[in-house]
TrEMBL record:
Species of the source: Nocardioides simplex (Arthrobacter simplex)
Protein name, as recorded: tRNA-specific 2-thiouridylase MnmA
Highest classification ranks of the organism: Bacteria, Bacillati, Actinomycetota, Actinomycetes, Propionibacteriales
Annotated compartments: Cytoplasm
GO biological process: tRNA wobble position uridine thiolation
Region described as Interaction with tRNA: 148-150
Protein family according to the UniProt entry: Belongs to the MnmA/TRMU family.
Amino acid sequence: MKVVAAMSGGVDSAVAAARAAEAGHEVTGIHLALSRNPKSYRSGARGCCTIEDANDARRAADVIGIPFYVWDLSDRFHTDVVEDFMDTYAAGQTPNPCLRCNEKIKFAAVLDKALALGFDAVATGHYATVRTSSSGAIELHRAIDAAKDQSYVLGVLDEQQLRHSLFPLGDTPKPQVRAEAAARGLLVADKPDSHDICFVADGDNAGWLREKLGDRAPNQGGEIRDDATGEVLGEHEGTFAFTIGQRKGLRLGRPAPDGRPRYVLDIEPVSGTVTVGPRERLAVDQVSGDRVRWCGAPLAAGTVLAGDGVSVQLRAHGAEHRAVVRVGDDALVVDLLDPADGIAPGQAVVVYDGTRVVGSATITATHRVEAAG
């Protein structure tokens, strides 16, 4: 096959490209230029989206012996990922920009361009596996290395996209990938993984949003209130600086009467009210979502998924929660048999049947566990 290998400049994508080439595919390495101004995104060897990363990717392609190009997708990235990130925070929700990047950039814009140029597939360094079922359906499954599994952020891919996707690392633990990179002479073998949002230069999400949103922010400040009493505990400069479950940076004027820390429970962007309370009030037992994406044949409205193998994941590296999933018209309602803490609208709920990814949705609402008594 003719394969485009998306090379971020990190160790995973370099080894994935090397494996694709070694498997006999005709591989071309590409690096995505995602910033209109390279200085506007973060710098340093952080593993994604910097000038240093582009150079690392080029050097890795040279070692592997494959052609290498840079594709400029900065306008598409800004519209579909950065603007979406800002709009979602401005609405009082918590987005996942990496998931949106996979949906809109790596497996939409890149794959569409690759297919138009005559390539057959896109290979990436994601930790996940693609399998063909006995019926011939293409399925997305968790990676062997549970600690590195990235199937959650790939839960937005449909079956057609999966048919043209290669994940060469899905069957390998991360330490072995680094050892293989060193053995292949790839200089990125010891390069640290990236964990921060690539377009927030210093990791300060609140400061970045304060600067970028400007007049688009729904409010320029508001009150922090106690969930139980309604008492005003402090003030803030904008709801975009908060997310559900946040503990640090609340700057409350005095401690709670019981001496326990408070957490953000609710964000109301129009009034600017941020509600805080004890940790146990973070627990939710139901989430609702829309913008459903199926990793296979769509499930009909009215379908109920239940049983020992049915679970959901609510964060990129979060735990699995046993669940009952009810399918509506482009919507899901998920009853959590294992309640979860600090879940915010804007995040994704990804549905699993065993190791197989069934699909995903964007969380629109949560229901808190009722307090005992």
